[in-house]
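S1.2 Input.
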Amino acid sequence: MMNRLSNTELPQPAPRSSEPSQLAVEILERLKYRIGKDPKVAKPHDWLTAAILVARDRITDKWMDSTRKTYSTGAKRVYYMSLEFLIGRMMRDAMTNLGLMDEMRDALASLGVDIDVIAALEPDAALGNGGLGRLAACFMESMATVDVPAYGYGIRYMHGLFRQQMADGWQVELPETWLAHGNPWEFERRECSYEIGYGGSVETVNIDEEVQRYVWKPAERVIATAFDTPAVGWRATRVNTLRLWAAQPIDPILLDAFNAGDHIGALRESNKAESLTRVLYPADATPAGQELRLRQEYFFSSASLQDILRRHLQQYPDFTSLPDAVAIQLNDTHPAVSVAELVRLLSDVHGLDFEQSWDIARRTFSYTNHTLLPEALESWPVPLFERLLPRHMQIVYAINAKILIEARRVRYATDEAIRNISLIDETGERRVRMGNLAFVGSHSINGVSALHTELMKETVFADLHALYPDRINNKTNGITPRRWLMQCNPDLFGLIREAIGDEFIDNTEALQALDAFADNADFQERFAAVKRANKVRLAKLIQANLGIRLDPSAMFDIQIKRIHEYKRQLLNLIEAVALYDQIRSHPELDWVPRVKLFAGKAAPSYHNAKLIIKLANDIARVINNDPAVRGLLKVVFIPNYNVSLAEVMVPAADLSEQISTAGMEASGTGNMKFALNGALTIGTLDGANVEMRDWVGEENIQIFGMTAEDVGKARAEGHNPRAIIENSRELSQALSAIASGVFSPDDRNRFSGLVDGLYNHDWFMVAADFEAYAKAQREIDQLWTKPAAWYSKAVRNTARMGWFSSDRTIRQYAGEIWRAG
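S1.3 Output.
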């Protein structure tokens, strides 16, 4: 047996130097001994890997210290379970937080290597889709920053979300190959492997005369293996762990079949296992797609919970202390099956009775809701759920019986309330409601903005809130200022630092001191120069990739987010067409030069969203090539939106489009990133826009349109979009142009369905809000012609956004939900 030495008996390595000369030596060592390259023949990607490995060694030292500290103090651990972690490139983030960026730049320069060149080669980790995944990444950085011991749990997608290309203006989905050449940041943990089962049957085993145990015998099994990536907090206060699961088959190859000549069939188990972690959000328009997504969600949920329980037993004698030692946060409904899985593991595997298991689970879990959209509150057909997870179906029914009996006894609930509370939707095809399961299985349910939280109580969870009135609370989202100011906008960061000192670096709310400079002409001039430089950088990227030339002196009006009808890219595009008509019709007026920039991906099976992308590209083709516009308006759709592209676009924005249908955006975090970087917001009173207005001042944000209450009333009472359209000359002309094929001469009916939807029901209030939106845009034009007034508001946006730091959000989670840190 191997002798285990205590930490005090182990030889301790000397502290690693941060001197550029020593870093250069280590880079050459990694290049030679880890990559096998002589510096004379090393390629840029070799230098990138070598530099990452040198930084990773220093991070690992901090990582081990953080782990030992957690064990020695018995600190409560937080486990953040999310199907997405949109972490983006890690090199700048990790080195900045480690305090090593300048030294690494000098070290590489001494070797003839430009750090900016090699940093651009690092692939974006394709582990997320949009705001949900980026929030999880910001939270991982902030949990380490504020010294909360935490693990993030997710899936190590081989391809993740698709890479978006354009073919004649249409979105084409291609595999993202971010892992093609490995990931130098991660560590494989072969010892952390767990069996995950599917299908099969459940048997009852009599333990004694009074006790029965349920034994699930899965028909299929795969292995989940952990890969760990360190998550570095600011100033390396703590290094936490992002643990991602890869799927492997029990038997990688059926050798008999292979030798018999069935070379494809011999690999079917391997291919089936690997399909679990190939793609994020496989299209679920088919039964096969739905099954794969449910398999994915159970796969990472079960592996994570098995890992949590194993770690708990290393420190504690049993699971009665689990809620005191562990907090598990469910990021949306994707990991909601964890509620049933934890009950199964505690009762079936570890021998607790159902009541104990349920009590422990409920006190351990908390749940973040991110949407009020019914289609986004996941539900699964009962036959699918029962076939794939038969024991979990039994547990769901047992939990449901407990909750519904309680509801009848405590509330004397109506039949309608019982139907809404039930974990099983009986209105059509019977389905398991994952949002309801997450709600009843958690001691805390939080929204992500003040408005969203109140709407949760009034809409999707109204009856559950009445049953459990103390569970719903608000935790308004935030963003990490390290990535979204310090790293993506270093010139603005430097300007602020010169003006107000260093306090804001560790306490973002100290940015308020910048208010004193908002009307200072010299500071405005320098602020505007930084903005222009960022616009020049974006313009160069667009010209290089798309061949479109932009004037950096024009207003850069940017809408970047997932393409969805409720986010209303369509409203923005219709207004672009109306403005196009006005510029051509009234050339004598002084029009403000404007560039409307779009980026975002549409779900592969979301027809209308993909049609909106095509419309954007068709409109762009016509407007950008019309000499009558005289360059006063351009429209650009930039393909393959990701974190790295956002880091270029956000600092370049003059105007931030946050125009979702009121009451439908839970929070948004893009709105915060833009405002922090000195963009003005045009938006509805939706999500965190409401709180942003309160913080930056209503005079410094352009709010328009219907409120959530207005939208609810219009939907309930009915509204007449046709009359609205016919009474608006600009709107009706713009829609007529779109519907008649002005922008699609090759298929004149291409967009008729989109336009008919606005005439006939206008669920997302595009027509209803058009006049208010167009009026707000012309007010923005007027403000743009007064640079002193514009930059006064822009500076105040930056100065007053400090509260929207994810550090503040995490401190609220830690203090009010997790009781950790």
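S1.4 Remarks. Residues 159 and 176 are 5 Å apart (CA to CA).
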